């Protein structure tokens, strides 16, 4: 790699930026490693960063690290673990959209209520007509008027029943469409779950493949016997020791000494800040 | 009771949260579905979930099943008789043929 900073050029796998009268932080250096303008006038010419850079591009005090994820990334830099990336059936990719039943349901409910109301009205008028007919000497006009009301009410009831049937059919059609949309979503969800399980299994296999090596590295760095309980700095350094990388790691801890010592220990290019 | 079925991961997560916070409204839980009590609160929780994930939450109403009210006797008898059959490998259609038991097609066409 080649590091350019304020007109100074440094070549080689171990570059120490400490002790210079410049203000460029570890994050700026990491950005420069990733090929972005780092800020502070630093530029780093190096190969593409690998998977472990996404997890631990900078090793610094107080860093956070998910050790298993990082170790899986380290294993991936070496090409160990399961071959290829069998992604399987991704499920339906077209969004089935949304079928809104709200309005149709409301209309069906209203139509049913209206039928109920009109049926009651018909029953009431039927009673009235019967009563008028039975009463002796009732005025014929009153009976005729009640009968006309009843006929109207029956017609209105029949109208409402027709509406209720139409609303019911419409709701049923929409329900079927919605069921079909939900079937699509179900298949998509199953595909997402399957993909996640595959990712998890792949990661487990990757971790298993380099676990012993990682545990040994953690121990030589003074970490605990249970390697996944190591301090994030120790775990990150052990991951880098397991990994292969052509792009540098930015080391901002003193544990391994200067850039050269860190490079020799980790076996990857190092920029010490 | 109200059956809430989810069809996406965010909806499933929301359902789990509701389940945890309102355990007393939960009758039964399945992976991505939950049966809620038939109370207004149960309905409120179900409707809230559907408001949040309109495209990925399905609400269904479930009632206890009384086969003595809902299912004709010949169907109930057919079920008992088939489970008591001698030859385990006999498919139902063959079992029912030539007996008084209703055939699968006949039952499929008859709504409860």
Describe the protein.
The complex is a heterodimer of chains A (273) and B (112). By secondary structure, chain A is of the alpha/beta class. Helix content of chain A is 57%, strand content 8%. Chain A is built from seven helices and seven strands, in the order E-E-E-H-E-H-E-H-H-H-H-E-H-E. In chain A, strand 6, helix 7 (259-266) and strand 7 form a beta-alpha-beta unit. In chain A, helix 3 (67-77) packs across helix 5, helix 3 (67-77) packs parallel to helix 6 and helix 4 (102-134) runs antiparallel to helix 5. The longest helix of chain A has 81 residues, at 140-220. The two termini of chain A are 16 Å apart. Chain B is α+β, with helices and mostly antiparallel strands. Chain B contains six helices and four strands; from the N terminus they run E-H-E-E-H-E-H-H-H-H. Chain B has helices spanning 9-21, 40-52, 67-70, 73-83, 92-96, 104-109; strands at residues 2-6, 26-29, 33-36, 57-61. Chain B has a four-stranded antiparallel sheet with strand order 2-3-1-4. The model of chain B has no long low-confidence stretch (mean pLDDT 95). The interface between A and B is small, with 12 and 10 residues.
